[in-house]
Each structure stands twice: as C-alpha cells, then as structure tokens.
Specification:
The structure is a homodimer of 352-residue chains.
Chain A (H helix, E strand, L loop, with lengths): L10 H8 L3 H9 L6 H14 L5 H7 L5 E6 L5 H16 L3 E6 L4 H13 L4 E5 L10 H13 L2 E3 L9 E5 L1 H14 L5 E4 L6 H14 L11 E2 L6 H18 L6 E4 L2 H13 L9 E3 L6 H4 L6 E3 L2 H17 L6 E4 L2 E3 L10
Parallel strand pairs in A: 1-2, 1-3, 3-4, 4-5, 5-11, 6-7, 6-8, 8-9
Antiparallel strand pairs in A: 10-12
Helix pairs in contact in A: 1-2, 1-3, 5-13, 6-7, 8-9, 10-11
The first copy, chain A, binds a DNA duplex (16 and 16 nucleotides) through α2 and α4.
DNA sequence: TTGAAAGCGCTAACAT
DNA sequence: ATGTTAGCGCTTTCAA
C-alpha cells in the first residue's frame, strides 16, 4: 500500500513482484521485444510505483553503447565555447545522446587527464573544442594521448592534432576573412590592419597568412605595422595591441589604418577603447570588425560588426561527425562550416 | 613485442599476462592492499604497455560511489552560471570528483528529465543552479521528481524546493542589498529605485521585499514608481523597465531617482542605455549598480558597480555540501554565502 | 600477500 | 511471448 520502501530497487525487484522474469522487465524497459499487454501494464505500474530507473552503468556494461559523448573545452566561461557546447548539447539530445563536459583551462596536462577520464567513462566519442588542438605545433604528450583514444573511439577536433587520425570540423577561416575584407573594401577602406591573437594558434595563424595572401587581390595598402599581435584574445590585449600599432604608425610616420580587423570580438572591444582614447571616432575615423558574434557585440557602443559561425550548425556538425564515427557511417575527415558576416555600427560607413 | 593488439583489454588481460589473478591487478589499480613489489611493477608495466584504463562503469557497479556529481543549470551561456559551474568543477576536482553538467534552458519539464538522467547515471549527488529551484512557487511536477531524488542522494539547490528536503546554498541576498543601499546612501543618494527581474523568482522577490523593509532605516524617499520590474534579466528588459520608470515619473511629476539598483548586471546595462538616451549622465545625474560581477561590468563604459559573490567560495560551498551529504557528514541545511560590493565608475560620486 | 568466487544490475542469446 | 543463463569488467569477501 505504502508509497514504498527505500531499498535498492532493480529489475529483479520489479520482476519478482510482477511475477515475471527480469528479461521481460528489460524488454519493456528497452521496448526491444513484444510483451503481452497485461504483463507490460503490470510492469509499468510497478516501475512507476517504485520510481525505478535502470542503471545506465549496468546497461553500459553490456551494451557497448553508452549514448554519451565527451567534450573537452578550454573554458566554458568563454562565451564562444559556451555557445558551441550548448549547440552540441542540443544536437546530441536530439540524437538521444548526452554530453559529458570537461574544462581544461588551456592546460595541456589537464587536457590529457580529461581525455583519460572520458576514456574511463567509456564515452562513445570525444569532441575537443580549442585547446591543444588549436596549437600550430601539437604538444607531443597530448598527441600521444589522442592517438591512444583514437584507437577506441572517434575523436573530433576544431583544430588539428599532428599524427593522430582525428576528424576535423572547423570554421572556414579563409572565407571568413574574405567576407570581412570584402565588406571593408567595398566601403572604401584601403589601409586595413589585422590585430590581436597568438600566432601559435592555428586559427590565428591562418588569418594572418591568408590576409597576406589576399592583400594584393583587394589592392590593400599593406604595411608590416598594420599587423600587430600582442599575444592574446582578451580586451586588455586588444587595447595593448592597438596602442602599440598607433605608436608605431606615429613614430614611423605611417598613416593610421582606416579599418581594423580584430582576431575576435573581445580583442575588438579593446581595439575600440584604444581608438577612443586616441580621440578618434568609430567608424568615422577607423572602422572595426571582429570575429565570433558574442553577446557583447550588441551591448557595447558602437555595436560590433563580426563573423557569425551559426552555432547551431557548428554543434550539429560536430555531433553528427562524432555519431557518424560511432556508427561507422562515413564522413569526410574534414568538414568546414560556412561563416556569415553580421554588419553593425562599428564598420557601417562609406568612405569616398 | 609489438606495441600491441587493439582488442578490448581488461583486468583479465593484464592478470593473465602478468601471471597473477585479476584481484591482484585490482589491488594495484586501487592501491587497496599490499602487493609484492616485483608483481606490482610487472603489472604496472603491462598497464602502461596496453594503455589500460579501468572501466568506470564496471567499477561503479560494484563500488557504490561513482565520484561524479551531477549539476543542472538553466543555461551555461549565462556567465553567472558558467562561473559557478567552473568553480564547482574546480572544487570537485580537488576532492577527486567529476562534474556532469546538464542544461535545462529554464524549462521545468527538461529539468525533470535531467534529474532522471542523472539518477540513471547513478551520480553521487545533484546540484541545481537556478531554474525551478528559483521559483517562488515550486512547480509540483518538479518538486515530485526532486523528492524522489532526495531519497537516494543529496540534492543541493541555490533556491528552494517546497516540500523536498534539499540542502540550500544561497547568496545572502539581504546582506547584498544592504551593501548596495549603504554605499548609495553614504554617497548622498536619497531617491533609490529598484529595477528589473521577475517577482516570481525567489531571489528577486527577496530583493524587493527586503528593499521595502529597510527603506525607512536608511531614510529613503520611497515611491511605488521607483520599483519597476518589467519582467526579465536581460539588457532589453532593463532598458524597457527604466524607460517605463522615466515615463511614469514624468507623467506623475515625480522627481527622477538619483540612483538605480538593477537586479542583475545585464539589466544594469539596459538601465544605463536608457539613462543615456534620456540625455542624462552616469553617475553624475543617476548612479547605477547591479548584481553578479560579470565580465561586461569592466568592459562597458561606465564600468558597473556590482555585487560579487566570490564564485570560488560559492562553488566550493556547493560542492562541499554535496560531498558532506554523500559521506554522511553533517552540514547545516542552509548555508549562506557572503557577498561583497565592487565599487566602480557607475556609482562613484558624492552628492552633497 | 594472493587467489577463487560471488556479485553489482542489466542485456542478449538461446531455449521453450 | 517469455524464462534461463551467461556474461559485461570490476571489487571484495573469504580462504589459503
């Protein structure tokens, strides 16, 4: 009568009380075979009565599929990662998977440990956002760990891992840069600067390299001074980089750029601050654009023009790649995601 | 000789090759008993050779402790939650625990499902940040699910759950409000407004109620118009609320407030925008303060005065409460966390 | 110090 | 349609 005991209730508890075998209970639980309606009903009642929830552990021991995808990120507090993670969680959820998130704080050793943890948890696949997979030169210890992981499950990264057979899902950085440059050039800007980031990060390196490559095509007034990466991706680094750039222009008698591409939006905020402190206006004197389309872009004055990756698509692609790996479906080793430009106040001006 | 096969390697694989019993391998794995050094060494070599990682699943089946704490949050993209989550992950990690994060997107049904998922994963404890536990009136379906959960593990929330025996770790909202009011009053502000949020959220309700309670004590010029909660916690809501407040003051011939407390920092940003659009200066004409100490506070101009909860302490307290529950150590049912005020430009002015 | 064996809770043949 | 049984990979008595 009473709501029930508090003891461990397993499929045996249910089976016994329903007068059936544990297998039958399992069948209704997983809906894997027909069970006579009356029995099924009785079992379901019991399940409800006891609030019985099958152990995902025991299940995972027999099944070889845990329906869990592990994900390692540098830091969820970074809104870019938080957005991508959330998009992954949504995509995974639709496919019946759960995500297991681990932060690495950009530390290579921690990343190795996190991979180990995920392996021990027997997750079905691992997705790594940024971190070591962003390095131009992959950390060897990390690469080793990834190689081990790859033996038993699909490993998807947003960068690359030297020597390990990972799946890659990345933003088409070249295309993104071109979108930005086209927009700026179309608006009449000639002296475009590229600012911020660390050159040992794959995506940043790609930006700088591609920028040099296409400068001619767009008839830009290039100058080494217009490339200033004062290491880092946060506001203060952007501020510092831009200050340095102004300083060099001043000393070397080079005209200030009329537009600045920051490697990400946080850096762009710093760039904007620096420009304002130099008594110049945005976008009238200098246009500014960034990457990532984070919250702040719409909050700050002026709103920041940026590159949007369509997080939903990004997450979807990351997860579907992982699942394809799990299920043995074939996928291209590298998939690119199409960027879009979001034009806002910070660059919205025509120069004659 | 070769690096090895690719087959499933278990404790038996190791045991066999080392010429010992699986029990012995287990002993070195868990360091739970003495093993003769030479054997231990041989076993360790094999473990390394095969990159063997014991299955957390199988382990969890026998042990009753999984060393995993589940955590449900409304949305990690919200920096407040991201900060608290990260603090929890750090605290947990120090104690040897791993966190399993699930987003609920503020949906009560999703929250129920997430609790179920965590229960199935047999996590050792559950921490819920915000969500249904923030409701002034707990959703009954949710409460029911929590009651079930509480039977088998410790459940820690930052709000409350009617009728369920949860542990509560919350910010001392009363104290926080007083810090803000004291600061504003000390600076000579008299007409203090409280703006934003939804009154059906525990923490918001507490702010409004406590504000009324202490208004006399601080000799504030109160007026119903100075309380404006236009539902919500984001920038646009803050903007709208403040616009409405200005409007009412105007129509009713009531002087504008000289200071505004926003229920959180995002709302404060909206309030600031509204004030600027009305051609007023911050803090000269109106001082603004918020809650949460998020990134944006230092990025936006003017920098925003706010309440800081010390995330590290918050996470630590959440996790230690959960662990105390797991280990059966006694803890107070409710623990409060001490807030601090961080004074910045937006309120840094003395009125005579 | 070590091994044998039982058991954790479930699923999946294999019978019936 | 349903029951029996044998694992899944580990830990943990209990003996030796």
């Amino acid at each position: 009568m009473e709501p029930t005991p508090n003891q461990k209730v397993t499929i045996y508890t249910i089976a016994k009380e329903a007068g059936v075998s544990p297998a039958t209970v399992s069948r209704v639980l997983t809906n894997s075979a027909n069970v006579r309606p009356e029995k099924r009903e009785r079992i379901e009642e019991l399940i409800h009565k006891y609030n019985f929830m099958p152990s995902a552990l025991a299940r995972g021991l027999t099944d070889t599929r845990r329906m869990i995808i592990g994900i390692i990120t540098a830091d969820v507090r970074n809104s870019f990662y938080a957005d991508v993670y959330t998009a992954c969680e949504n995509a995974a959820s639709k496919a019946g998977y759960t995500m297991l998130l681990l932060n690495s704080f950009g530390d290579r050793d921690t990343e190795k440990r996190q991979i180990k943890k995920l392996l021990e948890q027997r997750v079905d696949a691992i997705i790594q956002l940024g971190g070591a997979a962003d390095d131009v030169e992959t950390d060897t210890g990390y690469a080793k760990q990834v190689k081990i992981a790859v033996k038993s499950l699909p490993f998807v990264v947003t960068g690359k891992v030297d020597g390990a057979d990972c799946n890659i899902v990345r933003v088409d950085a070249e295309r993104a840069l071109e979108l930005l440059v086209e927009h700026l050039v179309y608006n009449g800007n000639k002296r475009i600067a590229l600012v911020g980031g660390r050159i040992d990060v794959v995506s940043t390196k790609a930006k700088y390299e591609h920028f040099l490559k296409i400068a001619d095509k767009y008839h830009l007034d290039t100058n080494p001074v217009y490339l200033e990466n004062w290491g880092g991706y946060r506001v203060d680094k952007g501020l510092r980089s831009m200050d340095a750039l102004f300083d060099k222009c001043h000393k070397q008698g080079i005209p200030y750029p009329d537009a600045v591409i920051a490697v990400n939006d946080l850096t762009a905020v710093g760039v904007i601050k620096s420009i304002e402190r130099h008594g110049l206006r945005i976008p009238e004197d200098i246009a500014v654009v960034g990457y990532d389309n984070i919250d702040i872009d719409e909050i700050i004055e002026p709103n920041i023009t940026t590159i949007d990756y369509n997080y939903a698509v990004f997450g979807e692609m990351l997860v579907s790649t992982a699942i394809a790996g799990i299920e043995g479906t074939s996928v291209e080793k590298q998939r690119n995601i199409e960027p879009n430009i979001v034009i806002r106040e910070s660059s919205d001006i025509k120069r004659v």
